[in-house]
Specification:
Order of helices and strands: HHHH
Structural class: mainly alpha
Helix content: over 70%
Mean pLDDT: 88
Number of domains: 1
Strand content: under 5%
Largest sheet: none
Shape: globular
Number of helices: 4
Distance between the termini: 29 Å
């Protein structure tokens, strides 16, 4: 549970930090609206990859399973927040986006567990 909490903290920090940075760039007209929309899609994908990477480094084995659990946990949290605060219905685009987020977290965890094994002394 501690591993998931740390990964969630990394993911939340990255999302909030990069979103603030992109918002400031948009406010001062450094970035256009279309670029902001693209970053709005890319930032959570990168954040979940890094969160999965951190989770994979701390896992013992089966990085893909840890990443899948992590991705599904984040999707449940995002779905609950989406339905509570935005009160929007479920769309096919949401399903595709959530699938991409899950794949990103799973892939990040798989890379993280392999990266950890490369660092160990032989």
């Amino acid at each position: 549970m501690k591993k998931l909490g740390t990964s969630l903290l990394y993911t939340t920090g990255i999302i909030l930090g990069l979103t603030l940075l992109i918002t400031l760039f948009n406010y001062f007209n450094i970035l256009g609206y279309k670029v902001v929309v693209i970053f709005k899609i890319i930032i959570p994908i990168v954040a979940l990859f890094i969160g999965g990477l951190m989770l994979g480094k701390k896992s013992i084995n089966k990085g893909w399973l840890e990443g899948l659990k992590y991705g599904l946990l984040v999707i449940v949290i995002l779905s609950i927040l989406n339905y509570l605060f935005l009160k929007t219905g479920f769309k096919v685009q949401d399903l595709c986006y959530y699938l991409i987020l899950t794949i990103s977290a799973t892939f990040g965890s798989m890379v993280g567990i392999n990266y950890k094994h490369d660092e160990e002394p032989k």
